[in-house]
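Researcher: Let's continue the batch. This sequence belongs to Protein kinase domain-containing protein, and it's 257 residues. Same format as the previous ones, please.
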Amino acid sequence: MIQIGSLKYPNILPLVGYHSTNEEKLIIYKYQSQGSLLNLLEDYIHGKRDFPWELRLSVASGIASGLNFIYQSSDNQEIIPNGNLKLSNIIMDENNKALISEYGFSRFLNPKACNLSANGYTAPEKLLTEQGDVFSFGVILLELLTSRTVEKSGIDLPKWVRAMVREEWTGEVFDKEVSKAATQWAFSLLNIAHKCVSHSPEDRPTIAEVWDKIEENVNAQRELPHSPGKCCESNEHDCCFLHTILSDTWDTPGSNY
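Model: Same format as before. Here are the structure tokens for Protein kinase domain-containing protein:
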């Protein structure tokens, strides 16, 4: 816990303290009034809050940045995988910045554990590894794109998205807010998510590769003029953009973009 508590980064919720006995284990964080990413997405679904594309992209970038910091800042110490990445553990601060919480909690509960209990964010191999964290991040990315929540619905979101892609209904995957504002950018993130939730851990990218690809998309969106709606309603350059933003190995089957 000393190693976990020493992590200081804008997208990681600082650990205030912890309590550990044979009977109970507690971790303590500063209260954040905006709640979790799950609260935000559910409020959006029920028409209580806005969740525009720009904020979704910022959230995805922030989570990826925090994870990348965790894996790049070990300083020759053992890297502790997150193992508990899900919407309810992503906290939103007063500026709508995404903060990773409960980092390392799985290891805190059971220091010798290598396996994870199954939930909608758990990779098929159920191991506490970087590849498992990549899978969990991919599920969160799919939730941001589809506005379908795994924790409350129990849906196997990667399976559902694969089925939609296989039937060449890829464009129907996106939430209406995403489709309305940024279809040309959303396909790029779908490519990333599709790779992250690959069944085999060997087929998934590293956290660093995911971070690089998302930043590539963020920077490209800043540089090019944004046009609402589908890119093919724009000019030829925008139409070709989604073919070139990612390498062939990141392409999502069934996409016409």
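Researcher: Any comment?
Model: Residues 165 and 254 are 5 Å apart (CA to CA).
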